[in-house]
Amino acid sequence: MKIKILNDAHHRINSGSSQSFRAGSEVDVPKATADALIEAGKAEAVTASPKKGS
Question: Is the pLDDT of residue 52 over 80?
């Protein structure tokens, strides 16, 4: 799932690993990670823009 990071964020994937994200970046992450970051107010979902010339 593609999301836009609103604030620098860290997300713990499991007890041995975590992932860091920089504010302003757009990343493609698993849905569970995206949902957790969106719920925490650290990210927002990126909606697909309409294709031009179709």
Answer: no
Structure tokens at 44: 């927002």
Separation of alpha carbons 17 and 51, rounded Å:
37
CA distance 9 to 17: 14
Answer yes or no: are the C-beta atoms of 22 and 31 closer than 8 Å.
no
Q: What's the whole-model pTM score?
A: 0.78
CA–CA separation, 39 and 6 (whole Å): 12
CB 22 within 8 A of CB 5: yes
Question: 28: helix, coil or strand?
Answer: strand
